[in-house]
Design goal:
8-stranded parallel β-sheet; 17 strands; elongated; binds iron/sulfur cluster
């Protein structure tokens, strides 16, 4: 049972330093992790934990929470204690929240020392506290918040400007002997973001967090993210990712997991092989594919299911999958492990596929 097609060629990963975000290793060839940020008010512990539970169920490995106020900082101990996955505190400007996050047991802190330096230069103390608590620091450089000095020097947020900014931010910690760093350089334009990360990968061996920032609404943003992250990950660059689309965190996580699975960097749980449809269709294939996906999401075993509109490619794809349906004349020919097991009316296709899936699961080794 489970995704029986030949394994894909997985990318050879760039060797970076390795650090640990809680119990999740990052870099050094360890599996690429998926992240998101909660959208709840961090001070509302229950709402935040509910969202963390949902993103964890969707495949999230590490979650980041924004800490813009004292109330948010005060909520961190309770959130960290009950979160099933490591929590990163995202902090701008106020060093006191960084210390609070470290004391709260946050697995990492995102902070830009350039900002800290500008307002209250306590970078050395932060380095000391993070080092003592074995808490890594993530430096995040975004096109939208690039240092004015570098913006003036480079004219705009070019790949060189983003990389120079990130390495300068790193140097502010390195001066204090702190190198437990992870870097993100993000841009809303996928190819600028790709160029920046290629450059960064050449110039340092810190683990890299990848993301196309402010990528847009779900459809556009997921495609932009898939293109940029797909290019970099296929070149072995990237140790952790986030899909930053204007959609709920669960959707961001699902998109991130799909990107990794498409590259063979994460096992797929459910793969629907469905045809786009053409003039040969005699069933509503778009609706059927959606219904199959909805019916099998959360199925406890990995499955590849073919949902095909006619006999041109239907039987071939159905035979290659764990389960398949090849449609025609308002009926579906059902396949299980490469064999035709039934022909049923369109209205019974989902039920029959579920029945066959349970049968396959019962026959799976270990059951
Ligand atoms: Fe068209 Fe049949 Fe191919 Fe679907 S499987 S796209 S219906 S030819």
């Amino acid at each position: 049972l489970g995704l029986s097609a030949p394994p894909v060629q997985t990318p050879v990963r760039r060797r970076t330093r390795q650090l640990r975000v809680g119990d999740v290793p990052v870099g050094g060839g360890t599996p690429v992790s998926v992240q998101t940020m909660t959208t709840t008010n961090t001070a509302d512990v229950d709402a935040t934990l509910q969202q963390i539970a949902a993103v964890t169920a969707a495949g999230c490995d590490i979650v980041r929470v924004a800490v813009p106020s004292a109330d948010d900082a005060a909520a961190l101990p309770a959130t960290v204690a009950r979160s099933p996955i490591p929590v990163i505190a995202d902090i701008h400007f106020q060093p006191r929240y960084v210390f609070a996050a470290i004391d709260a047991g946050c697995a990492a802190v995102r902070v830009n020392p350039g900002n800290i330096k500008k307002f209250d230069d306590r970078v050395g103390e932060i380095a000391q506290a993070a080092s003592a608590a074995h808490v890594p620091i993530r430096i995040g450089v975004n096109a939208g918040s690039l240092d004015a000095r570098l913006l003036a020097k480079h004219g705009s947020a070019t790949p060189e400007a983003l990389v120079e900014s990130a390495l300068w931010e790193c140097s502010l910690f390195e001066e204090h002997g702190f190198t437990d760093l992870k870097i993100a350089v993000k841009h809303h334009d996928p190819m600028t973001m790709v160029a920046a990360n290629r450059l960064l990968a050449e110039r340092c061996d810190y683990p890299l967090h990848l993301g196309v920032t402010e990528a847009g609404p779900a459809f556009q943003g997921s495609i932009k993210s898939a293109v940029a992250l797909g290019i970099l990950l296929s070149e072995g660059i990237g140790d952790t990712i986030r899909v930053s689309v204007s959609a709920p965190p669960v959707e961001q996580v699902k998109a991130g997991c799909h990107i990794l699975a498409s590259l063979g960097l994460r096992p797929r749980k459910l793969e629907i092989v469905s045809c786009p449809g053409c003039g040969r269709l005699q069933v509503d294939i778009h609706r059927l594919a959606d219904r199959v996906e909805a019916a099998f999401t959360g199925f406890p075993h990995p499955l590849r299911i073919a949902v095909m509109g006619c006999v041109v490619n239907g039987p071939g794809e159905s035979r290659e999958a764990d389960l398949g349906v090849s449609c025609g004349n308002g009926k579906g020919q059902i396949f299980a492990r490469g064999q035709v097991v039934a022909t049923v009316p369109e209205s019974q296709i989902i039920d029959r596929l579920l029945e066959e899936a349970l049968r396959l699961a019962d026959d799976a080794p270990g059951n």
